[in-house]
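Researcher: I'd like a candidate sequence for this fold, 325 residues long. If you have to choose between options at a position, lean toward the conservative one.
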C-alpha cells in the first residue's frame, strides 16, 4: 500500500469552449476525454494530459456555467504545478505567455527548482516547474501532435500546494495515514509568513510532492470558477484501493466508499481542513472505450450512462474541438 504520486487534479471552469482553447492551443495538452460529471450529467468533464492521459499527467475540469469567481483563501488547493523538462523550457514558456498576454510572474526558485507561476483566463493558479534536477517519478510523454515543441512540452503534474490555517491536522493525515514523508521547506514569498513545508511519497520527486502553506491571515476560500476542486493520488489497482478504503474508514475519516468511474476506480474523503482528496487506480485508462488515436474527439459516456446519451447530449452546449485529432 504505497501512494505512487498524483493521479489527477480537478478544477472548475465556467466556459468549456474557452477552457479547451487555453489548455490545448496555449498549453499544448491533449484533450484525452470529453465526458460529463458523473454526479451531475448536465455539465462537461474535460480531461487533459499527455499522449494517452497517463496517470500523473491529468488536469481535469468540471464546467459549471454561471458559477461565481473563486475567492482565494485557506483550506484550499492553492496552486497546481505542471512539469517541463528543463530550465530552458521555462524561458520558452515565459516568451509564449508574453506573446499571448497570459498573466505570469518572473521565473523564481521554489523548493530547489526553477518555477514560473501563471494564471489561466479565469484566474486558475498554475505553475510550471523545471525537472532539470528532478529525480523520482517520471513524467509523461507529450502528444506528438501538439503545437508545442517536444523539448518544451508539459510532462505532467508537479507539486500541489495546499493552503491551510492550521497545518498540523493536514500533515497528520499525510504522514500518519497516507505515508508521506517530510522532505524540507522553503521561504514563502509573502512577507512575515512561515516557510512552506514539502512532503513526498513513493519514489519521490516533483510528481509526488505536497507543499503545505500555513496562512492565518486569510479567510476561508469560496470555490468557484478558477478554483481547484480536488486532488487525486495514484494507487496501483483495485485491491490496493479497497485496502485504503478500509484504512481511511478505520481512521474515522468520512468517505465515499468504493466508486466506479469506469476509467479508474476511486475513493473520496476530506482531510480535517476540508480539502477533498481522492485515491484513484492507474487503470483501466482512457483507451477503454476509444481508440488511442482518437481520444477526446466525441462525447464519451461510461456504460452505466450510455442508455441516457440522448437526454445527456440534449442538455450540453456543443463544444467545438477543431484540430483535436
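Model: Candidate sequence:
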Amino acid at each position: 500500500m504505497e501512494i505512487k504520486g498524483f493521479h489527477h487534479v480537478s478544477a472548475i471552469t465556467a466556459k468549456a469552449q474557452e477552457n479547451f482553447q487555453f489548455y490545448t492551443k496555449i498549453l499544448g495538452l491533449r484533450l484525452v476525454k470529453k465526458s460529463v460529471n458523473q454526479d451531475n450529467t448536465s455539465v462537461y468533464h474535460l480531461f487533459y494530459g499527455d499522449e494517452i492521459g497517463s496517470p500523473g499527467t491529468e488536469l481535469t475540469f468540471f464546467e459549471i456555467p454561471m458559477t461565481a469567481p473563486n475567492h482565494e483563501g485557506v483550506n484550499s488547493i492553492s496552486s497546481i504545478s505542471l512539469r517541463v523538462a528543463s530550465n530552458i523550457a521555462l524561458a520558452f514558456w515565459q516568451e509564449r505567455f508574453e506573446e499571448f498576454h497570459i498573466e505570469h510572474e518572473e521565473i523564481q526558485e521554489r523548493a530547489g527548482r526553477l518555477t514560473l507561476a501563471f494564471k489561466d483566463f479565469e484566474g486558475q493558479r498554475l505553475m510550471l516547474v523545471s525537472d532539470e534536477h528532478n529525480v523520482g517519478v517520471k513524467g509523461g510523454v507529450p502528444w506528438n501532435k501538439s503545437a508545442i515543441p517536444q523539448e518544451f512540452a508539459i510532462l505532467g503534474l508537479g507539486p500541489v500546494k495546499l493552503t491551510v490555517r492550521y497545518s498540523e491536522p493536514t500533515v497528520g493525515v499525510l504522514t500518519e495515514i497516507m505515508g508521506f514523508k517530510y522532505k524540507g521547506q522553503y521561504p514563502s514569498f509573502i512577507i512575515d509568513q512561515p516557510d512552506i513545508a514539502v512532503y513526498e511519497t513513493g519514489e519521490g520527486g516533483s510528481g509526488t510532492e505536497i507543499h503545505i502553506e500555513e496562512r492565518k491571515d486569510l479567510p476561508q476560500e469560496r470555490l468557484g470558477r478558477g478554483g481547484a476542486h480536488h486532488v487525486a493520488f495514484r494507487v496501483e489497482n483495485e485491491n490496493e484501493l479497497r485496502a485504503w478504503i478500509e484504512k481511511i474508514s478505520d481512521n474515522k475519516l468520512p468517505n465515499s466508499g468504493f466508486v466506479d468511474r469506469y476509467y479508474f476506480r476511486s475513493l473520496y474523503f476530506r482531510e480535517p481542513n476540508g480539502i477533498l482528496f481522492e485515491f484513484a487506480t492507474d487503470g483501466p485508462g482512457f483507451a477503454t472505450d476509444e481508440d488511442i488515436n482518437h481520444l477526446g474527439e466525441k462525447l464519451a459516456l461510461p456504460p452505466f450512462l450510455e442508455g441516457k446519451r440522448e437526454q445527456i447530449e440534449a442538455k450540453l452546449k456543443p463544444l467545438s474541438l477543431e484540430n483535436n485529432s
